[in-house]
Amino acid sequence: MIKNFSKYTVFIFLSTAIIFLSSCATAKKAEIKPAVTAEKKGLEETKIRISHPDAYYHFMLGYKLEFEDINAAIMEYKTALEFDKDSPTLLVRLAALLARKGQLEEATAFAERAVQNDPEYFPALLLLGEIYANSEKADKGIAIFKKIIEINPYNIEAYLNLGLLYGSLKRYDEAEEIINKGISINPSSPLGYYYLGRIAFDRKKTGKAVGYYKKALKVDPAFKPAYIGIGIVYEAQEKYKDAIKEYRRLLDEVDMHDREARGRLVQLYLQQNDFKNALIELEKILEFDPNNPDAHLRIGLIYVEQKRYKEAADQFDRVLMARPDDAKVRYYLGTIYEEIKESDKAIKEYKRVIELDPKNIEALTRLGYLNSKEGRHEEALTYFKKALEYNSTRAETYLFIGVTYIQLEKYNDAIDILQKGLSIDPKFDELHFNLAVAYDKLNKKDECISEMKETIKLNPKHANALNYLGYTYAEKGVNLNEAISLIKRALEIKPNDGYFLDSLAWAYFQKGWIDDALEILEKAVTIAADDPVMYEHLGDIYLKKLRKNDAKDAWLKSLEIDPKNDKLKAKYKESSFGDPDKEDRIKSKMKQLEEKEKKKKEKPPESKEEKILLTAYQVKDGDTLESIAAKEEVYGDSTKWKLLYEGNRSQIRDPKILHPGQILYIPRGEAGQEKKE
Fold this sequence. Notes:
Strand 1 and strand 2 form a beta hairpin. The protein contains 34 helices and 5 strands. The chain is mainly alpha-helical. A 3-stranded antiparallel beta sheet has the order 1-2-3. Strands 4-5 form a two-stranded antiparallel sheet. It has helices spanning about 55-65, 70-85, 90-100, 105-115, 120-135, 140-150, 155-170, 170-185, 190-200, 205-220, 225-235, 240-255, 260-270, 275-290, 295-305, 310-320, 325-340, 345-355, 360-375, 375-390, 395-405, 410-425, 430-440, 445-460, 465-475, 480-495, 500-510, 515-525, 530-545, 550-560, 565-575, 585-600, 625-630, 640-645; strands at about 10-15, 15-20, 30, 615-620, 665. The longest helix has 18 residues, at about 585-600.
């Protein structure tokens, strides 16, 4: 077993050759199923060498547990060693399991003990060589494999492992030479040709690699890794149709359940945005493994791409039934809830992400955004600051904090944090834009204009900056021709923006083009009918045209939207329209605001938590379809058990038999209601 040899690793424990392979053809790792070797020639050592009966008893318990509970198996082997501390069988089995768990240092110690007790015990030598290779102790690994070959020159595994180790060190000529020697010992083994193919591929000799893989298949037409190897070569050559054909051949002619081939097919289809065929392959995976979380995850991500958000949420829920602590999937689920406008659920998922991964910057940022959107700016600020604490190099975080300070009317704080952001990314246009806004709020017009100009310089199509600078000039009554030009550029980008139209109308008004201003502003208020500034401007223009009743009505509409505009109230009185606070429509609006403020101060009644209906359920010991259906979060009615049965026929053969750990889909109609029988 060789680490980093074209990302392939090989483990051979005792009489079983367990080969874990991953491809270097693409950036993503691709697992290949175990390849079985038949060449042992004296190295099997199948005789169990245990002298004490109690040790043998615990050995048998451990052996039975190896593929059920590896930790329990390790404990049994350690107990067995207390009765027979020098048993090579026990030492090797224990070392093998520790190596499987990645505890290589402890595995090395037990394997070395076995070799010290019997320097020619082949299973211990093979295992120790593999562990050395994985521990980046190449020299020791090479020495071990050479020793095995010296003791028994007919052992093909030693040749292959030595060849792979040479390959991992890029000593390719030596690797090919030693693997060819192994092939000469047993030409009927596909493994040797397969490893030569891997080496050729690593050397970028793709044609030669395919040739070796085909030789492996000639020896053994059912040798699955060779099909995968050929497919990977085609992928590297961007011959995707040929790669698909090769994986299909494996599935159709050799093993229809091969996960590696099916997984690579899915990946190829996704790379080509062929979601239809990717979904077909993923559904086939679920036919054989209904609770496969990775398949459900990929289906969910495809649904997101297709904007089928509720179906995607259902798939992610199934993944979380199997992996409730998967922070990434919970983040995906949060983004879906945002898309379907269920902010409370999104916040709940993002908070769970933070519980699992406190330094998750994206989740902290989303929590900040959602709280800010709901007007909870102080809470939003807490999340943004936490994100900044964990990563102070993201300019976007400084922007979010700066915008939040502006919303809290803490303009000096906003200026300070936005300037810090610009020290990290001086060319970030949004930082300059919001810095200009903060300066404007403090009536620092020159600084505001300077930052707006910088924003436009960095991004000539920044519509908001073009409009803001143009309106600033119009408001001051300066550079009016430039103001009109800037606002028109903004309108080219957003032609139906009511606020931009208002800016243009005001610039025209300042130029004295009253009729043009009125025409544009009357259009603007139909687009943005809830803006008090527009109606104030409209009243100003009406008054200029001596349309006093229209002016009065426009100003009253402005005051209905913003009844606290004292400057407009003064202007209203100066125009001899009377006291606006005595107008019934303004009194009514003020009363509404007072009641709203009063309710804010009152403690809101505790609301009952919304009942969450499950979309999937993980079977527990003792569950029946009836008891599951009766749960409030499922259907709340045991007679609905047939819905569960019909919706999960692919994994339930007998409705009376359920297995703990099964994940059942809960069929529902629209709005979360169960379908009628």
